[in-house]
Amino acid sequence: MGWLARFLSFLLFHLYFHASSSLSFSFNSSFSAMLCQHDQSLALLQFKKTFSIRITYLHSPWESYFPYPKPYPKTESWKESTDCCSWDGITCDLETGNVIGLHLSNSLLFGTIYSNNPLFFLLHLQSLDLSYNDFNNSHLSPQFGQFFNLTYLNLSSSNFGGEFPSEISYLSGLVSLDLSLNDFLILETTIFNKLAQNLTQLQELDLSFVNMSLVAPSSLMNLSSSLTYLKLRYCGLHGKIPDISHLSKLVTLHLSFVYSYGRSMIEIKPMTFDRLVRNLTKIRDFRLRGVNMSMVAPSSLMNLSSSLSSLALILCELQGKFPDNIIQRPNLQLLYLTDNEHLTGPIPVQLGRLSCLDYLDLSNNKLHGPIPNSIFKLVDLTVLILSSNNLTGEASPATCKLKSLQILDLSNNSLNGFIPQCLGNFSNNLSVLHLGMNKFHGTIPETFSVGSSLRYLNFNGNQLQRKIPLSISNCRNLEILDLGNNNIDDSFPHFLGTLSKLQILILKSNKLHGLVKGPTANYSFSKLRIFDLSRNKLHGPIPNSIFKLVDLTVLILSSNNLTGEASSAACKLKSLQILDLSNNSLNGFIPQCLGNFSKSLSVLHLGMNKFHGTIPETFSVGSSLRYLNFNGNQLQRKIPLSISNCRNLEILDLGNNNIDDSFPHFLGTLSKLQILILKSNKLHGLVKGPTANYSFSKLRIFDLSRNMFSGPLPAEYFDNFKAMVNSDVKMEYMRDPNNSYDYSVSLTLKGLEIELVKIQTLLTTIDLQYSTLTGEFEQLVDLTFLQVFRVSHNRLEGPIPEGNQFNTFDNTSYEENLGLCGFPLEKCNSRESQQSAASKEDDSESKIGFGWKAVLAGYGCGLIFGIAMGYVVFKTRNPAWFVRMVEGFQKPKRFKN
Ligand SMILES: *[C@@H]1O[C@H](CO)[C@@H](O)[C@H](O)[C@H]1NC(C)=O
Ligand SMILES: *[C@@H]1O[C@H](CO)[C@@H](O)[C@H](O)[C@H]1NC(C)=O
Ligand SMILES: *[C@@H]1O[C@H](CO)[C@@H](O)[C@H](O)[C@H]1NC(C)=O
Ligand SMILES: *[C@@H]1O[C@H](CO)[C@@H](O)[C@H](O)[C@H]1NC(C)=O
Ligand SMILES: *[C@@H]1O[C@H](CO)[C@@H](O)[C@H](O)[C@H]1NC(C)=O
Ligand SMILES: *[C@@H]1O[C@H](CO)[C@@H](O)[C@H](O)[C@H]1NC(C)=O
Ligand SMILES: *[C@@H]1O[C@H](CO)[C@@H](O)[C@H](O)[C@H]1NC(C)=O
Ligand SMILES: *[C@@H]1O[C@H](CO)[C@@H](O)[C@H](O)[C@H]1NC(C)=O
Ligand SMILES: *[C@@H]1O[C@H](CO)[C@@H](O)[C@H](O)[C@H]1NC(C)=O
């Protein structure tokens, strides 16, 4: 719609020009060489000087990522003693020479705009576009209210902040106002109402991502009925959507709201919805997200205008059968019914009649049955996403008729049979092919061909067998390849090393065998950043050349049968965030340098190998480590004091070694430590009580069993455990936040040593069995949150507290304490059993998951990857970007480069 506003303004200028020229003919201005007025030229040059030129959206290796036309510094062309009317971004009134248009969108401007900025001298401005720059969280100056003749104002995504000035409501001639994507801008009710009431000419309004949490939704009723375009996405409104059916000229309506804890924060009544859709007779683009429509019958959608071209209802709690009445919208180009977990039924066959459709996303509902063949008649489809339903049947070779497809995502369904061979090369435009988490068997198609556009290929979580086809190496654009969790029975696919853009390679949980081959000159794997070969049958040593892949951030080789020593060459990987070599047969010493080689390392897992010698002593201040696991080796001697430098440590598992030391009370200073496992070592002496500095205040899992501790039960620590009960813990699994890597630990549950591959944040255990602890535990009455409590095989005395969960623990929790009495009579019915069940399930689920939506940054325009994983985008100053791109709220036509 931007073009419409610009067209209108152009029309206005045109009329203005003709009107004024007929009124006042001036004999010299129309012939002067310089059209530009000197004072305005000066103001512009001074305006230019208030900024530096800077790329601000990304500060990472992914700088190339930019989901909009490539920015360029328009003001660079502004030179003194040239006609300012000829400068880039400037429009002048041809008659008066006044600067009436300033269009500096996407111009890399960085700096603060204060109220005395020379910009505010340009009072003749009619059109002002400063969108997509970085004004350093400037307060939106009241001076903007002085541009009385302004019809078009666009300050979208330009990092303005502070209180929204009421003076903007002076701009009563505004036709288009876009202040979207300024997350720190706060707009309150009284000002919004002034704005709504005074801007009577307004046709376009976009306040998405402006903080309107203080605005009463009923204020929307004040909006001018001249509006044709209204976008209010993620602006913090909450409550009920009021009746806005007076906005009957709307062509575009986007309303998105935050959706959290599994429910919408805003609702629409069936009556209101009905009135709205009946009155929006001109609507073409209608998108709601996070609006509770559970009371709205899907049949109400019937009343939506028949000229509709885009319909999105996301997270709207739609209930019941797929609303097949929408199929009578022959102009529909985009249909996006996603994340409505109560939307059921089969995909209607009649969808095949929507011959204009080029974007179809029905993901994350409860649709079942087969994919109707009629869909494959929609030959203009560029995007087909049916993931996360319960679709069954086979993937039809007719899919290959969709020659314009750029994205095909059928993942996470119950599709079975063979993957059609033709899927390897049916569309030259295909960038994303995701068939993961289905029940496909047979082999991987062998038809991938030269010229393929594939960037993302995912067959994870099927039952595919045999070989990784050589033809995948034809996909020269491949950035992500995930074939994990299948039955592939092949040797290591060294040939993938020729894919010079490959950044993520996941082959975990297959039957790969033989030796791991490292990169060579011809098979260089030169861009590899994430490499997961875990749970295969690879053997032999880890090739040293892997450690030349200095861009690696994640290296997971766990659960194979790798042998040999862990080379100190690993310490060259200075960008590493995760190093997991656990569950192999590695031996020798752990290289000292592993304690501090990478400032970004957050996971170091060397558990279940045959390492001996001592724990590295080089952990240093500034460490990012959150997870450190050396469990199940033959490590000796002491727990190094330097571990207390790892201020971010959440999990420390040193169990099942030969550590011969006293209790490492110094670990109590680690204020984020939640899990401490030291079981089955030779630790001895007193388990010291806490002091102010040594508090273990976040501990939830505390396992000291099978050591040689003596003295009283460290009940003071348990008091600190209570802290976590009060905090608002959600049922989640503990994982590395940057890489969605699930932390694991090994615990004894139900008498079995279990590797918990996922740790619930609610799991709490105390295990002190098999030592020589003494004393009583009356003071433990309050530990009502414990799920596992074991003190058997000690020398404890006195009664077990009654009337609380202590009686629910299995008697094996207490046995072999000669002085302990009042053993529980009931069998354990605590959540322990669920815990261990949960720990075993889901082995197939990705340990690291990379959805293409997060990866495919900015697919709304030209599929620009930039391989930005979700978190990279989140780290930029504007989190709004992420949401926008994941939603795919772009016009599908812009997919083409
Ligand atoms: C504002 O500018 C941005 C970036 O150029 C553009 O995408 C958007 O459509 C504009 N808004 C309006 C209402 O024209
Ligand atoms: C003619 O142009 C000059 C400079 O462009 C300006 O200073 C002067 O005022 C103009 N004269 C009239 C009569 O407009
Ligand atoms: C950006 O804002 C910060 C904080 O207000 C300020 O210290 C800094 O000088 C500003 N930088 C520019 C270039 O305006
Ligand atoms: C604003 O527009 C009016 C009417 O077109 C015109 O007379 C006036 O000079 C303009 N004001 C400025 C500051 O350009
Ligand atoms: C409405 O606009 C007019 C004309 O620009 C202005 O004089 C008046 O102060 C504005 N009213 C409010 C409430 O902002
Ligand atoms: C929005 O503004 C309110 C009121 O100033 C503030 O409490 C809240 O934290 C802000 N929300 C966001 C997401 O910034
Ligand atoms: C519905 O739209 C018509 C114009 O198309 C308008 O006259 C009427 O007031 C609107 N209804 C409501 C309830 O606002
Ligand atoms: C999916 O569909 C299959 C076959 O109809 C059925 O057996 C299975 O229970 C369904 N799964 C879910 C999660 O609904
Ligand atoms: C692992 O490799 C060693 C040495 O090659 C061999 O003895 C052992 O049987 C292998 N273990 C498994 C589980 O394959």
Automatic annotation (TrEMBL):
Domain Leucine-rich repeat-containing N-terminal plant-type: 39-93
Keyword Glycoprotein: yes
Record's keyword annotation contains Cell membrane: yes
Main location: membrane
Membrane topology label: Single-pass type I membrane protein
Localization per Swiss-Prot or TrEMBL: Cell membrane
Signal peptide from the UniProt entry: 1-22
Domain of life: Eukaryota
Family, per entry: Belongs to the RLP family.
Keywords: Cell membrane, Glycoprotein, Leucine-rich repeat, Membrane, Receptor, Repeat, Signal, Transmembrane, Transmembrane helix
InterPro entries the record matches: Leu-rich_rpt (IPR001611), Leu-rich_rpt_typical-subtyp (IPR003591), LRR_dom_sf (IPR032675), LRR_N_plant-typ (IPR013210), RLP23-like (IPR046956)
TM annotation in the entry: 850-874
Organism: Hevea brasiliensis
Name of this chain's protein: Leucine-rich repeat-containing N-terminal plant-type domain-containing protein
